[in-house]
Amino acid sequence: MTLLKPLPLPNLHSLETAKVWKALRDAHRSLAELKGVCAALPNPAILVDTLAIQEAKDSSGLSGEREDRSQ
Predict the structure, then answer these.
(1) Measured in whole angstroms, how far is the alpha carbon of residue 22 from the centre of its chain?
(2) Cβ partners under 8 Å of residue 47, min gap 6
(3) Between vectors from CA 50 to CA 68 and to CA 70, what angle results, nearest 5°?
(4) pLDDT tens digits, residue range 48-69?
(5) Residue-range domain boundaries for the chain
(6) Residues in CB range of 67: below 8 A, 6 or more apart
(7) Cα-atom radius of gyration of the chain, to the nearest Å?
(8) How many other CB atoms are there within 10 angstroms of residue 47's CB atom?
(9) Cα–Cα distance for residue pair 34/51, rounded to 1 Å
């Protein structure tokens, strides 16, 4: 059995670019907006359940499995 040598980690300073910080800022704003919208829903669990179903559909599509919708 051959052991693999791990790749070196990138320089942390190279990750702190203006592009990364802008993307982080935009993601933070979007999550805050989503949190506000969810708070206004009468039953926020419906949104979470829908996301879980969508993720399951997406992952089954990646593995080539298809749901039998005729049942």
Answers:
(1) 18
(2) 38, 41
(3) 15
(4) 888 888 888 888 876 654 544 4
(5) 22-60
(6) 57, 60
(7) 20
(8) 13
(9) 13
